[in-house]
């Protein structure tokens, strides 16, 4: 694995800098700390007055030194604010000289996610600066970047500063692929991002990363972890005011496993997949305390189900593509006066497009979203394509007929101008004065 590029210009040999950092750690840890005395026997400092080493002399055991330094490095979180970043940079510089720096950076990242006791106000910002620099200096394919990014996400969650990493998260899938992370490690990072987005009140983005985490469990859909995450995703989708398509959930094996472990949750999902507000009312009547016990917002569920019911009505409308106000009010169980409000709300949600007619008391549908897309919908698409093809055939026939008539008229005009059945050549003689008649001589 390639080493870490230098973060800054640090003068001195490994032995000198390690001894300096050990002494600093002892000063932070206080009386009784033995970091410096522990590493001194491990350090071999060449004597400048002696000839160059023959290659047989003892060398510094860098790994043993780094283990002791990294083990004690949590004390750096108590360093004065003005010295904190320099001290961590020195530690990272020493780690970069190891042949396997990935063994030492994860503990350092964990230290940086812990509270900076010497700077409660600015500590998070300083830690993010150190981690950001470290992430950018690692090689793109270095899997150690994973641990650094995980620490960054944890800090972002704590400081509610999710916006600072949003642009970079577009690369998360390619990064994980490049680092060749295990599904469990990818899942841990996805969940951390999801929690961070949720804390910053980005519910839709939180849901997206939660689904990504769920997909890493497709090979083991019935585990307790899969069940817990599936219920979390289902609850998030149901409570979201903007999420109306549930096929992203039903396509997951982990969600399908709920049919055995959590039948009531599965029934509720089925209602929102392709059923109506009346079915939701029946569900609530049959499971009178389920919604309250599950800490679901009933008002949010009712609103969403009314919009989805109206979407279904629009998608199933007859050939004239209209729905009466009375039908809408009955299906949504609302008053006639509220019908237009619900139609407008459905249009704003992007589920339907159309035009309201107060005079005719109906809604003319221009477009409607299908909640599910199966064999029935494919047949409908095929039927509409046949109608469209027949219409185009008729249009082409009319155009062809008009073209043929135009050609015949032109041929008739040309035939008359050239003498028609008499043949020969026509010559026109005339004057510039339009009042004078033209004479036609045939040769």
From TrEMBL:
It is found in: Cytoplasm. Keywords: Cytoplasm, Initiation factor, Protein biosynthesis. Its main location: cytoplasm. Residues 30-63, 418-443 are annotated as: Disordered. InterPro entries: ARM-type_fold, COPS7/eIF3m, eIF3m, eIF3m_C_helix, PCI_dom. GO terms for molecular function: translation initiation factor activity. Residues 433-443 have a biased composition (Polar residues). One of its GO terms (cellular component) is eukaryotic translation initiation factor 3 complex, eIF3m. PROSITE patterns: PCI. Pfam families: eIF3m_C_helix (PF18005), PCI (PF01399). Component of the eukaryotic translation initiation factor 3 (eIF-3) complex, which is involved in protein synthesis of a specialized repertoire of mRNAs and, together with other initiation factors, stimulates binding of mRNA and methionyl-tRNAi to the 40S ribosome. The eIF-3 complex specifically targets and initiates translation of a subset of mRNAs involved in cell proliferation. Belongs to the CSN7/EIF3M family. CSN7 subfamily. Belongs to the eIF-3 subunit M family. Component of the eukaryotic translation initiation factor 3 (eIF-3) complex. This is Eukaryotic translation initiation factor 3 subunit M. The lineage of its organism: Eukaryota, Fungi, Dikarya, Ascomycota, Pezizomycotina.
